[in-house]
Amino acid sequence: MNSFFAYLRLMRAGWVMAREGVIASLPADGLQGPALAAHRLATALARRKSQQADRAERLARAVERLGPSYVKLGQFLATRPDVVGRSLARDLSLLQDRMDTFSMDAARARIVESVGRPVEELYSTFDAPIAAASIAQVHPAEVSDDAGTRKVAVKVVRPGIRKRFYRDLDSFYLVAHMAERLSPASRRLRPVDVARTLEQTTKIEMDFRLEAAALSELAENTRDDPGFRVPAVDWERTGRDIVTMEWIDGIKIADLEALKAAGHDLDHLAEILIQSFLRHTLRDGFFHADMHQGNLFVDASGTIVAVDMGIVGRLGKKERRFLAEILYGFIRRDYRRVAEVHFEAGYVPAHHDVASFAQAIRAIGEPIHGQSAETISMAKLLTLLFEVTELFDMQTRPELIMLQKTMVVVEGVARLLNPHFNMWKASEPVVGDWIARNLGPARVVTDIKDGLGAAVRLAEQAPVLAVRAERLSQELDEMAREGLRFDPGTAEAIGKAEARHSRSGRIALWVIALTAIYIAFQL
């Protein structure tokens, strides 16, 4: 029955997309047969008003009608140009996550339910919301304790958002499965895995305890870093549905005139921003993955304060070494080494030729060296690199895509502060220091230390592994004597799966028939 309702919700989403002209705005090049017919039908169904708007405006209208879940879907797909294409990703990135506020009574109910204490006991004042997005809204408040009175920001989850998101998620999975079945070319992009990643990231974003933990972790990592910090968390007033944090009095980093009037050095701010992001990425392997200009403030001391850490990114040691060696290889014009790094990391299948791949990398690197450093975009370099790797069957790496997307945004903010900003010069101290520590002689010491640690852990697990090996040997011996058998539970599960498959087919036929009737009625 869930599949039936998922089909109905998908029909509604398709109808809204068609009426708002979103489908008509998509290119029809290469479409044939039913796909081309569907595109033409959607174009005919588009409102006249929508035909005069550009695609970004059409997307905004459609998403507004479809609700918060589709806002999150659009924002997520904006980080995956490998899936939707660079042009559509750019349009999706313009979606504004602004929703109507919900009532003070609902906000108070969420707080009591989450923390278990009355609002009056938690806050000396609790004011009306000043901003609302798809998942939450923010209230200014004050806390009075032995240390005095301090202003705080209280982020409260939107009522019913989890139920609505999980309901719409069924439709997203349905589309992903259909894409994998009907389009073999889409399987390389792993649409079901994309839907699974959306589910996981949004689950995390809707649990404010995890956002508070991310703020706390980044605060510890950056405690001694110059010019960058995040708000302090009030853990006593934080739960699954609310997070209370330090109120930030500062100037939005996009307000250049106000920054200049306050006496801040814009060139220095751009340098601090880039160096902080690279430091978090390379040194810590943990970075704020939503560092757009709306989430960055500059306080009176000239320190950049980053807020809203619902989305974060992590890179393991392998990915950090990969990134550093890629950047270092391009700087030194060692394209063979850049190619080898891809193979060593397992990102490019071994059946490809390293020399041919190095030739493709050279096609990216050589034009760059003819330009002045201030015109070379590090983010564009990574974008071109990922485009080339597609030719060599490099599988989608979500963590690297998120890194690239964040780098595009951070670099854009830095260029906003200083249009002639030299990314490479600003990055050199951080990247050079990390390379010296991790890719030189120090790397050997670190690898030996990590290897010894792994050996010790393996020795500790040896008794457990021996018991498992003995059990597996006994089971294999029994299988050899008596053959492979299904227990009744397995047979029953297979029967139920087959029944579901048949039922889904029948439901699909009914949905198609209902869709045809609905469209005919509308026409």
TrEMBL record:
Keywords: ATP-binding, Cell inner membrane, Cell membrane, Kinase, Membrane, Nucleotide-binding, Transferase, Transmembrane, Transmembrane helix, Ubiquinone biosynthesis. InterPro entries: ABC1_dom (IPR004147), Kinase-like_dom_sf (IPR011009), UbiB (IPR010232), UbiB_bact (IPR045308), UbiB_kinase (IPR050154). Pfam families: ABC1. Residues 95-342 form the ABC1 atypical kinase-like domain. Pathway: Cofactor biosynthesis; ubiquinone biosynthesis [regulation]. PANTHER family: CHAPERONE-ACTIVITY OF BC1 COMPLEX CABC1 -RELATED, PROTEIN ACTIVITY OF BC1 COMPLEX KINASE 7, CHLOROPLASTIC. Belongs to the protein kinase superfamily. ADCK protein kinase family. This is 2-polyprenylphenol 6-hydroxylase. It comes from Hoeflea poritis.
